[in-house]
Amino acid sequence: MAKKQKIYGRPEALSSSVMHYCAGCGHSLVHKLLAEVMDELHIRDKTIGVAPVGCAVFAYYYLKCDISEAPHGRTPAVATGLKRVRPGRIIFSYQGDGDLAAIGMCETIHTANRGENITVIFINNTVYGMTGGQMAPTTLVKQQTPTCPAGRETATMGGPIRVCELLNTLDRPFYIERTALDGIHGILKTKKALLTAFKAQMDEKGYSFVEILSPCPTYFRLSPEDSLKFVKNELSRHFPVRVFRKEGVVIND
């Protein structure tokens, strides 16, 4: 009889609480990756997350590290304060597109411009998930939402904002990458990007930013499986998945 071998288990940094996220939502997957990264880097006991007002507001139920809450969009500012007061702690900001690219755009840009030694994790699913799936700054052209039922049109609403490209115009960021939760390969690349971002902070290299294209089946009005295809075929087409900056150097595609 073949000897049984355990090859997979719950990360120590991930609690056993039942998550509130919708079926097929990417937040739960990113939480698991974050927990794996904290375990592998042995940093759980000295990590502080800053969670947003939004779908991830209950992150403190799921991740077994210290977590602070911040008002809408102020997550990078709170993370900055925590890092400056406790420079030996590993600080990450966790935000959705509405929080980071709308009301929090000011904090997002200035934190990156200062090159704060924190890690920012940006979940981009192109809608405001928590409040009903309204149009977000990242909503695609012609994508329908409750507040743009005919589809986003650029003449009156502008186009979707590409945050990685925007931050990459600044001088101080150390590492910027966009990944996509569109299948196994994308999940593995996302974990690698998170590891790179946290290692950069541990080495005191400065600001690191990981944008993750993520499925939202509820407001895509698609099945979880078709949502992954939407991320791969539509989101990734408008928001190219790649490394934008590495070791403080802009990477030209």
Provide key terms for this protein:
10 helices, eight-stranded mixed β-sheet, globular, two-stranded antiparallel sheet, 10 strands, 18% strand, single chain, alpha/beta, 253 residues
How does this model look, in words?
By secondary structure, the protein is an alpha/beta fold. The protein has ten helices and ten strands. A hairpin with a 2-residue loop joins strand 9 (242-246) and strand 10 (249-250). Helix 1 (26-41) crosses helix 8 (184-202) and helix 4 (97-103) crosses helix 5 (105-114). It is globular.
| Element pattern in H and E | HEHEHEHHEEEHHEHEHHEE
Oligomeric nature of the chains: single chain
- Share in β-strands: 15-25%
Overall pLDDT: 95
What is the total tally of β strands?
A: 10
Give the termini separation: 52 Å
Major beta sheet summary: 8 strands, mixed
Sequence stretches where pLDDT stays below 50 over 5 or more residues? none
Radius of gyration: 18 Å
- The helical percent reads 25-40%
Compute the number of helices. Answer: 10
Strand order of the largest sheet: 2-1-3-4-8-7-9-10
Q: Name the overall outline.
A: globular
Q: Quickly give the structural class.
A: alpha/beta
What can be said about this structure in brief?
The chain has 253 residues and is of the alpha/beta class. Helix content is 38%, strand content 18%. It has ten helices and ten strands.
